[in-house]
Structures are given as C-alpha cells and as structure tokens.
Specification:
This protein has 356 residues and is an alpha+beta fold. It has two domains: 248 residues, Zn peptidases (Aminopeptidase, 3-Layer(aba) Sandwich), CATH 3.40.630; 90 residues, Beta Barrel (Elongation Factor Tu (Ef-tu), domain 3). It is 29% helix and 27% strand. It contains ten helices and 17 strands. A hairpin with a 3-residue loop joins strand 10 and strand 11. Helix 4 packs across helix 9. The relative contact order is 0.17.
Length: 356
Amino acid sequence: MHQDSKEFLVKYLNNASPTGFESSGQQIWLDYLKPHVDEYFTDTYGTVVGVVNPDAKYKVVIEAHADEISWFVNYITDDGYIYVRRNGGSDHMIAPSKRVNIHTKQGMVKGVFGWPAIHVRDAAKEEAPSLKNIFIDCGCSSKEEVLEKGIHPGSVITFDDEFMEMNDRYYVGRALDNRVGGFMIAEVARRLKENNQRLPFGLYVVNAVQEEIGLRGAEMISRRIKPDVAIITDVCHDTASPMYDKKVSGDQKAGKGPVLTYGPAVQNNLLDMIIATAQTKDIPFQWASASRATGTDTDAFAYSSEGVASALISLPLKYMHTTVEMVHQEDVENVIRLMYEFLVQLKSEHDFRYIK
C-alpha cells in the first residue's frame, strides 16, 4: 500500500465520526480526496462528494458511508452515573468495561462503561447487559459535576479503541463499518488520477452520512445527484466465523474476495458487467443474495428519483458493530481493483444504454 494511503487509512479509522456528527471525519476524507477530483461539494447534513468531469452527460456514483454507531447520553443520575440510548445499532452486550469518549462543546471527556465485579454477582441469576443496566462512569460524584464538564442528554459517546494490524493480513478496529469503504472509494479516485485515466462520464465519489440510522444520507444525496449508475461499497458478515449459521446468513469468508449481491435493488445488467470485469481481470469474488432489501445505501440509490441502476460490492468483515471489526487486506485491495477496473472499462454510450 502507498505510504500516504496507509497514513490516511490509520488517521481516518482512528477518528470518531458518530452518526449525525461526522464532520471531523469528513474533513479528513476530503483533504485526502481533493487532489484527485475536479471539484467537490457537501450537502446540508454533511455528505461529501468529490466530482471528476462534472459537465459530462452521464453520472456514475461510487459510494460508501462515513458514520459509525455510537451512543447518546439519555439520563444522568444524582450521583453522576450516565445511562445511554443507541445512535445506530450499538451493541449493549459488548459495552461493560469499555472505555469511551464523550463528545462535548468543551472537548472530549473520558469515561468507562462500568460493571459490577464477578465476586458479587449471583451466577444462578446473573443479569445480562442491557440498555436498562449499562452505565457510564466519568469519575464524577454528582449530576452537577457531570453537567459542568459539558455533558448533557444528547451528548454523543464513542468507544475509545484504535486501529491495529494483525498477523500481517488483517486490519482491526472500530468503525471499519464503513470508513474502510470511504478509504476504498478514495483510493479508486487516487489511482484514476495517478494513472491518468480520462473517464468519458462524470464520476461522483460519495461519502454519505447517516447510513446507520436508515440510509438517510444516501437518500438525500441520490436525489441531488440524480446519477445514471451507482456502485455502493459496504461490509457484509464473514460467516465462517464461529456462531454464524450459513443456512441463514450465506457463505462469505474474509480473504476470498469481494462479495457481489443479487437482490431486487441490484440491477442485473450492471451486476453482470461487474462480474465480467472481475472474471476478465482475475479478481476473486464471492456471491450473496438479499431478500427484500440489502440493508445498505444500495437501496436508497436504487429507488431514488425514477430509479437508478445500482449494484453492491461488499467487503467481508468479522465481528460487525464491535470494537474489533476485522477485514482482510487482500479483500480491501481487490474491492479497490474491482471498482477501478469496472470504471476504466465503462467507455461507451452503448454501455450505459445496456445498463438501463
């Protein structure tokens, strides 16, 4: 990996970008993207778009989402303990003993999700972590002291965990879902620029907000761009990990390549072209299926305006919505290659007519 790319990846993954509060991460992403696009814009809620060939007839989107799951302060007790509610699909089961950052106007406040010691719990009727009993201790002894730190109901909270590499083949950390997607689409733009690839269409590199609470950022930006084609990248489950049922969740494994999904929101002609690209360029890939919806921003783009030809390229990921999400480095490279090679071969008006 290019050294600048690696530095960007680490910086971007270590930054917190909770749903609804993505601006700091979006700035890091945009600073990296700017040299590789002709112009850029942002929308009202913080989605950032880099554009190559803005005056072209056809518009092609490559998209990822920028936001990460988090927590909101919901209630502060008189003796200074904080109870929370979800912002996105945050996992209450992993919270006890985790360190957290509480984001305030006065700066970052450190805290921990506390939990009673094993010595005092009754094994016969142990209470599992739930939203009713998990709590944050920020070292304060009263509600007033908590408030003085700038913490109040609505303050957002993220886990305090940083990026690492494992066994020279995995990237590990929180919020790889889906900032690793933002990294991959930015890398596609960088490679197109560095290789002097002149695309005959407008390329819109979209890092959308608010996916984790209902695909809202993609819903808004798709209506503004009105693309002809949208290729979405997000993560999917590595179902070879323990405790997955492949009969329910399919068969995808980290290290075996990008996952291409069949489903109602995926336009078949576009998917066929992506598969043909993978086969021609010897890029390994896996198959998956979606029922009513993919659960990704693909759905928002596909059904926007008069309908947008959309496809989903997924990255297999272990331990989704935890602080130790894992992706295989070869899969990351192959998702980038697949998007890049598809865009490079999308040359003629005939291709766009075929897709539609």
